[in-house]
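Fold tokens
===========
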Amino acid sequence: MSDNKQTDRRRFLKGAALAGAGMVAAPAVVKGQTVTNMRWQSTWPSKDIFHEYALDFAKKVNDMTGGELRIEVLPAGAVVPAFQLLDAVTKGTLDGGHGVLVYHYGKQTALALWGSGPGYAMDANMLLAWHKYGGGKQLLEKLYASIGANVVSFPYGPMPTQPLGWFKKPVTRAEDMKGLKYRTVGISIDVFQGMGLAVNALPGGEIVAAMDRGLLDAAEFNNASSDRVLGFPDVSKVCMLQSYHQNAEQFEIMFNKDKFNALPAKMKAIIENAVDAASADMSQKAIDRYSTDYIEMQTKDKVRFYKTPDTILKRQLEIYDTVVAKKAAENPLFKEIMESQIAFARRATRWEQDTVVNRRMAFDHYFGPKGSLSKG
């Protein structure tokens, strides 16, 4: 083989290795415009509305930068399994990703405080307010640094309260749940284990198949649209609504820190504003889509929805307090984050409870059994 051919071969192999590792080459120039390409992965199946949210964010950035930054988002498993996203982004195998912080629970339990639990009476939007204005952002940076995660993280997209989950029959008391093989994630694993369940953490795309094979007796994922498209109504016709196990969760947009820091200041500013825009858009889309699928699961899929009994909700809170007290005693960073949340929640939830009118009265007035619009 000639020296020129050997040189060409080495160049080819080097380029293939970089591509295989998911590394982005130097920015391309198209029609006089410098273009930076990024390859991302979500932690969601392509058919899930959550993957759609990831695509929505990418489109906003792509549009707002005028094509100077182009983010391609692949579904879960395209490059790495869902629970390995943090490692892949840290190493630069992926330039970024879309998921939830609680999926990194195995690396640092305190990450679950961004969404797994009752949020000290805050909803997900209030928890985001704590993150942005109450010190959470700085604490998350400190936490990621403590585990060597080379990422820039943007929590966004407040989620509505998640259901207790899908069961073979309605549960009327905490004792009904003992011994069930159940899927959940984060601190909720510890809470439900404390309630006597056998818990298994699975990515969203694997849950229904596990229920169908009898590997799970019950499971929770997130919302009416995700649950419906993932096939939960095919394996269960009973869904228990309302729970404290994930009362205040949000999504996470994650960049490899080196790739993010290398971007021009203007592009970083666009990304940060796109996060806020995507957060609002996701919240509004969720209301539209979740409410539609909630009705259609009842009318078309014949799913029966039940409110989780207060006795179970109260038991969740009691066990959660025991679980976090233990983790705070073992993990100083967990304790620091928890105390910061409590201080913010004490003020914010008091304001909310004193100020915001309970909309149940208005709902009953218009849409209750004797409501003025109940027959509409």
